[in-house]
Amino acid sequence: MNQLARLVPQRVSHFIDVVEQVRGSQLRDPRAAAEAMQTQRAELAALTDRAAEAMTKAGYRISPAALGRISNTLIGAAVDRRLADDLRRGRLIAELPAPGFEVLAGAGAGLRVVRGGGAPQRQSERAAAQRAREQAERERLAKQAEVKRQDALQRAAAAERVGQEVRELERRLADARRRRRTAQREASAANDRVRRRTD
Known about the structure:
Elements: H1 3-7, H2 9-26, H3 30-57, H4 64-78, H5 81-89, H6 119-198
């Protein structure tokens, strides 16, 4: 998770800024909040995919549960002003649960919650986790296909080597048979000469 801050620091900072925009617009401008939410979903999906890619390259097997924890931790840190800085610097020390209505905490007392302000966020998190799972599955299938392709190439190369060895053995056998026939003819001719002399 913390590797994202080193791999794609600008994207992490942009994601945190977008989450802050969502927080700020939820209570003021539902339309702007919806647009910001779309951007947040896209950025969360991109970061989750990047994290999955980094873990796959490092040799880790990515499960749907792991992708969900990555997504939850990203959004959970971004909505918390204290943890957002740790996320930006790559210093998170623990996984975080998915945030709920506490995203609106600190907005001030007496404010009403705009209908749909919480549900789209949870839906966006689920959608991002689903996209991350699908991406991980695609990568798993691609890696599996590559392993099978390499295996088929190795088998084909081995079969070609065996074919070459068989052809070489057949050539040697044919040469040996020719030499044997030649030797037999020479021996027969020698016997004929010996018989003629003795006659």
